[in-house]
TrEMBL record:
Protein name, entry field: Phenylacetate-CoA oxygenase
Organism this protein belongs to: Blastococcus saxobsidens (strain DD2)
Stored NCBIfam families: PA_CoA_Oxy2
Segments for region (Disordered): 1-25
One Pfam short name: PaaB
Gene3D superfamilies assigned to the protein according to its UniProt record, in alphabetical order: Phenylacetic acid degradation B
Entry's transmembrane regions: none
Length: 121
């Protein structure tokens, strides 16, 4: 039987001879990744960005987000995303990014004529 330990709070970890155990480098709090936190409220349909926090891993980020951003039971779902994994457009790119849709008039309801036989539209 292999000896086990629950050192570090990560559950049973084998410690017997012949069991390879790779040490994980310890990160200081300064090196923890930054996470963006999104919470869906009880009555809301969408997750809303509520803030950011640092955490050592994804699971701890969810727990920390719950503790920090839903203290009064205002949420039903939490998303955490590493800030480094988010790609976003810049507000400076607003015109080149969104202007092309303005010249596609078929996307606007006023482009289409409503037939006379349609009672409600």
């Amino acid at each position: 039987m292999t000896d086990v330990t629950a050192e570090g709070g990560h559950g049973a970890v084998p410690t017997g001879a012949g069991v390879p155990v790779e040490p994980r480098p310890a990160l200081s709090r300064r090196d923890w990744p930054l996470y963006e936190v999104f919470v869906r409220g009880k009555r809301g349909l969408n997750h809303v960005h509520v803030g950011s926090l640092h955490a050592p891993d994804d699971e701890m980020a969810v727990h920390a987000a719950r503790d920090v951003y839903t203290r009064r039971n205002e949420g039903v779902s939490i998303w955490v995303v590493k800030s480094a994994d988010i790609t976003a457009s810049s507000p400076d790119e607003k015109d080149p990014m969104f202007a092309p849709s303005g010249d596609k008039v078929y996307r606007h309801p006023t482009f289409y004529e409503i037939p006379e036989g349609v009672p409600h539209m």
